[in-house]
Design a protein that fits this description.
- The protein is mainly β.
- The protein has 3 helices and 13 strands.
- Strand 9, helix 3 and strand 10 form a beta-alpha-beta unit.
């Protein structure tokens, strides 16, 4: 089994790579390109999971930054990545994680849980609020708060699309409203408020809430019809 993390220390004057004892994934080369640094990550033949790259400037910090995610490794045994502006730091530390390892199936790779979000990679819902850690990150709520993670989700019968995430009432910045109530309910958790907008009629016979306790909140000229 491959180790989840491999660490690398980079300074302006000196760099060196160290491989974890049980790992077959390692940083094989570092190249300075002006103020940038190019990293080369190698892994064995047949290793086809996705890789995440992390960086920090102080190993006493609890948090790492996810600087490159979901790098596909299929069909090759090396990945090259450029860290723009890395040369400006007096010290830079790197770590690579297997983005395909998610022990608790909460939608967050174990390395991201341990290094970035500080959630428990063995618990799908670290704060026990009924919303999986991965869903909380996607929704913009705190997976460590232990409080109410309820949010507003949006549906719009005029401009909505069920492929949107429902996290915004308008389309932009990668977000947008759902088209149907049923798709919005599917993306919701108990406690959420579903804000319904648009001039068209929402017609959803046999609408099922799936046991969820949510609030339907029509706004403006909205008509609900079974």
């Amino acid at each position: 089994m491959l180790a989840r993390y491999v660490f690398l220390l980079l300074t302006v004057l000196l760099y060196s790579a160290a491989k974890a004892e049980t790992s077959n994934v390692l940083f094989s080369a570092i190249q300075r390109e002006g103020d940038d640094v190019r990293l080369h990550v190698r892994y064995p033949e047949g290793f086809t999971n996705r890789l995440d790259l992390y960086a920090c400037t102080n190993l006493t910090s609890e948090y790492w930054a996810l600087v490159s995610q979901d790098t596909i490794t299929a069909g090759d045994n090396a990945v090259s990545w450029l860290d723009s502006g890395a040369g400006q730091f007096p010290a830079r530390f790197y770590c690579v994680g297997d983005a395909g390892v998610d022990a608790d199936s909460d939608g967050l790779p174990d390395a991201r849980e341990s290094l970035v979000y500080r959630t428990n990679p063995a618990l799908p819902d670290t704060d026990f609020d009924g919303i999986p850690d991965g869903a909380e990150i996607a929704r913009g709520t705190d997976p460590l708060s232990g409080g109410n993670g309820a949010i507003f989700l949006y549906a719009n019968s005029d401009i909505g699309n069920d492929d949107y995430d429902g996290l915004a009432g308008t389309v932009g910045a990668g977000h947008g409203p759902k088209l149907t109530i049923s798709a919005t309910v599917l993306a919701s958790y108990s406690g959420d408020t579903l804000q319904l907008q648009g001039g068209a009629i929402f017609v959803e016979p046999m609408l099922s809430l799936g046991g969820k306790s949510v609030v339907l909140c029509p706004k403006g000229e909205v008509t609900l019809r079974p």
